[in-house]
Amino acid sequence: MIGNSFLDVSLDPGELSFLYGPGVIGPATEFRRLDAIRASLLDPNCAGPDPVYGIVMDVARASDLPLLRERMLLYGIVAYAAGRLGEEPVRSQGHVHAIAPHSGCSPPEIFEVLEGRAIIYGQQTTEDDPGECIAVTANPGDKVVVPPGWAHCVVNTDPAHRMVFGAWCDRQYGFVYDGVRQHGGLAWFPVLTSADRIEWRANPSYRRSDLDAHAAREYPELGLASDRSLYRQYLDDPDSVRWVADPRRKQSVWEDFRP
Known about the structure:
- This protein is mainly beta.
- It is built from four helices and 20 strands.
- The protein has a single domain, classed as Jelly Rolls (Sandwich), CATH 2.60.120.
- A hairpin with a 5-residue loop joins strand 18 and strand 19.
- It is globular, with a radius of gyration of 17 Å.
């Protein structure tokens, strides 16, 4: 089992591919190649691990699938390679969630680090003025919520080790990359120092912005439990994460929400 995920899922020791235990089902691993994310990196011509990460969407106990489908929820797991992408750590290119047809909303997402150490970076928009920019450092068991409509990416902060996270997503998930690619990335690039620490470098394609970097926090306003994995919390109370697919359930929270 990977970390404290509750699900009987493991990683192939030599690859970024996932293996399912009895009673757990999921798709074949999809690999994100380096060429697919180059346009959003600080150095588009850099060398680095390839594939950058492996991803499986819609992982569940078979017995849980009917209710998950009814509630338009989907659980995904992603494994990031160790290494560097030039000066940057291994990361995703960044995107905004597309409007989900069933809700008419750009859905939020809950991340949970299962193995390694991550930063979830988010910014309010992909316009020239990115709005608020926030980088949240998360350790195993920490949860980070990206609110509706925000652009975001996930970073593996440790080039010596792989990183794995799980996430609750909208079942009609879709990714919009246009604004990120037009600016050659997000508003801030994570850069590794010679001591493998993360520093941040502003992307000059955006207007000047400030970056708020902080540790993961708890989310009592969203009803997230700090003592249980995301999947375990869903099993204990299927309504507790229903706002991922129906963000209007927490409309008052989103108005002043910050990750």
